[in-house]
Design brief:
Blueprint (H helix, E strand, L loop, with lengths): L5 E7 L3 H11 L1 H8 L4 E4 L5 E3 L18 E3 L1 H5 L1 H11 L1 E5 L12 E5 L21 E6 L6 E2 L1 H16 L17 H11 L4 H24 L5 E2 L3 H18 L8 E6 L5 H10 L21 H16 L9 E4 L2 H10 L2 E5 L6 H4 L6 E3 L6 H9 L2
Parallel strand pairs: 7-10, 7-11, 11-12, 12-13
Antiparallel strand pairs: 1-5, 1-6, 2-3, 2-4, 8-9
C-alpha cells in the first residue's frame, strides 16, 4: 500500500545455480564465501546465531537479509559490492501500483524492497495456505536419537536446581526416575523429593527455566560434550534434501503430501537446541513452530498433543495420527506412538538395544538412523 509506485525485487531459489555457477567460474573466492557457512551466520528462532551459507548447495535455499539477523565475516563484507551486483543481475523486479500486492512463497523466494526516496508504506502478512496434500509430520526425539549428552545434562541441571533451592542437590542424593521424564516433570519430582513447599514450586520452576540455559553454556565451557549419534546427520541431511526436492517437484495447486520435520522431546527448547547444535546438527533442519518441548509439557503424550495442536492451528485442518511418524530410541517413545495411533521408527543408538526394543513392536527398528531411509521414502511418496 503506497501513494507512489513501489519497487520490489524477487529471487527464485530454484535458480540458485545461476548465482552460484557464475561466481564459481568467474570468482572462485566469492563462490567460496557464499557457499561456506564459515563466513555467514543467521539468527535462529531461539535468538542465537547459527553458521549457515548464503547459498546452500545441499538444499537449494538462498538466504540474505539487511537487518540485525545476519552476521558476515570481514571477507564477505569486503566482497559485498560484488555480491550485490550479482543479486541485482539475477533479480526479478516487481513494480506495485498503490493498492496492489503480490503473494510469494517465502520458502522459495528471497524478496525485498529496492531503494527509494519519499514516503512509502508496504504491509507484509505471513500466512500458511491450506495445503492440498496430506500433512505428514516426522518428529524426532533428541537424547539417544540425535545425540548423547548425559554428563552435560546432569551437570547443568543439578547445579541450576541447587542454586535455586539453596542447598546441594545432586544425581547421587536424589532418588527420582530420570528416564522418560520431561524437564518439567523431572523438576517437579526433584523439588518435591527435597521437600520444597508446594507454594514455592511454581516460582522455582520459573526461575529454573530462566536460568538453565546459562548453566548449559557453562557446562559446555567446562568440557562436557554433546556427541552426535552415529550417522544421525546422514539421515537428517538426506531428509532435508528430500523435502526440498519434493517442494520443487510439486506442481502448483496439485501438491503431494506436505512433509513437516520437527522435534518432540522432553528437553526444554533451549536445552534441546543447545544439545543438537553442540553435536554439530543444524537446528534449522527442524520446524520449531510445530515442535514440542519439555518445559511446557509434563509427559510424552502431552508433547504429542501439543505438536498436533500446533500443526492443526497452522494449517486449519485435522492431522490424522496415521500420517504422523515419531522417531525415538526408548520404550516410552514406542508407547507414546502406540497410544496416539501413529507410526514409530525405533533406533538403537540410545540406552536400549534392538533386542530390548523389538518386543515392543515398532513399525521399523534400526541400528542407525540411515537405515530408515526406505521406510521414510515410502511415507513421503504416499498420499
Amino acid at each position: 500500500i503506497s501513494t507512489i509506485t513501489a519497487h520490489c525485487a524477487l529471487w527464485d531459489s530454484i535458480n540458485t545455480a545461476s548465482l552460484v555457477l557464475v561466481p564459481k567460474a568467474q570468482d572462485i573466492r566469492l563462490y567460496d564465501l557464499i557457499t561456506n557457512s564459515k563466513y555467514s551466520s543467521f539468527r535462529a528462532d531461539d535468538g542465537s546465531f547459527v553458521p549457515r551459507p548464503i547459498s546452500d548447495e545441499k538444499t537449494g535455499i538462498l538466504r540474505f537479509r539487511f537487518d540485525d539477523g545476519i552476521q558476515l565475516s570481514a571477507s564477505l563484507v569486503d566482497a559485498f559490492p560484488k555480491l550485490r551486483r550479482l543479486f541485482y543481475e539475477y533479480a526479478r523486479p516487481i513494480s506495485l501500483e498503490p493498492g496492489q500486492c503480490y503473494v510469494v512463497d517465502n520458502h522459495r523466494f528471497l524478496h525485498g524492497r529496492t531503494s527509494f526516496t519519499g514516503a512509502r508504506e508496504l504491509l507484509r502478512v505471513l500466512a500458511y495456505p491450506h495445503p492440498p496434500g496430506v500433512i505428514k509430520p516426522i518428529f524426532f526425539d533428541v537424547d539417544g536419537t540425535l545425540c548423547r549428552s548425559e554428563a552435560l545434562s546432569i551437570d547443568a541441571y543439578y547445579r541450576c536446581v541447587s542454586d535455586i533451592v539453596g542447598k546441594p542437590i545432586t544425581h547421587e542424593n536424589t532418588k527420582v526416575n530420570l528416564h522418560g521424564q520431561t524437564d518439567l516433570s523431572l523438576l517437579q519430582d526433584i523439588l518435591r523429593y527435597h521437600g520444597l513447599d508446594e507454594a514455592a514450586i511454581e516460582p522455582a520452576i520459573r526461575s529454573f527455566f530462566n536460568l538453565h540455559p546459562q548453566y548449559l553454556e557453562a557446562s559446555l565451557a567446562k568440557g562436557y560434550r554433546s556427541e552426535r549419534c552415529p550417522e544421525a546427520d546422514t539421515l537428517l541431511d538426506w531428509l532435508a534434501a528430500q523435502k526440498q526436492q519434493q517442494q520443487v517437484d510439486q506442481s502448483p495447486g496439485r501438491g503431494g503430501p506436505v512433509i513437516c520435520i520437527g522435534l518432540l522431546t522432553g528437553n526444554s527448547q533451549p536445552n534441546a537446541l543447545l544439545k543438537i547444535r553442540a553435536a554439530g546438527i543444524d537446528p534449522g533442519l527442524f520446524d520449531l513452530g510445530i515442535s514440542a518441548f519439555g518445559d511446557n509439557n509434563a509427559s510424552r503424550d502431552e508433547l504429542y498433543r501439543d505438536s498436533i495442536r500446533k500443526l492443526e492451528s497452522r494449517y486449519g485442518r485435522k492431522v490424522d495420527a496415521e500420517n504422523v511418524t515419531l522417531v525415538g530410541d526408548t520404550p516410552l517413545d514406542i508407547e507414546c506412538a502406540k497410544s496416539a495411533g501413529c507410526g514409530i521408527v525405533a533406533v538403537a543408538t540410545g540406552n536400549y538395544t534392538s533386542g530390548q526394543l523389538a518386543p515392543l513392536g515398532p513399525d521399523l527398528l534400526c541400528e542407525k538412523l540411515p537405515e530408515a531411509k526406505a521406510y521414510l521414502s515410502a511415507i513421503m511418496a504416499s498420499g
